[in-house]
Design goal:
153 residues; alpha/beta; two-stranded antiparallel sheet; 22% strand
Length: 153
Amino acid sequence: MYPVQLNLNQKHVTIIGGGKIAWRKFKKLKDEGCTIDIVSPTFLKLFTDSAWPSHIRFIQKRYESNDIEGADLIIIATNDQEVNDQVRSDAQSHQWVNHTGDRSQSDFFNMKTVTYDHVTFHLSSNGQSVQKTQYYAAKLETFLKTLEGDFDA
């Protein structure tokens, strides 16, 4: 994998799913300057507890292939393997897909970010273990706090 940061300004992201994993992905995307469609028959209360700006749309329905037509980036985050596989199958070659249920069908993996002293660290298990990535991120944050005032430029 080739690590990059994506400028999603003026891009379109579609998230298929309305559960915990979709929420975790959405939280990181909502302030990135992109339009976001979240498609799901049901949504976690976290999604519906807030008023969101117009660049974020909640589409309460079952997935259909035209739901991803204009997407630059697609996140598949449902607990329905048939739907997940259908979304992957419907995606075009120019669309980047993160299939949260099957890393072998993903074009990219998200990274955990830790920011300290205006430096951002990105951690990834290459889609293998969210728990392991979170564990090491917590260790890194603890270590970085011990460096308070350590760097003089």
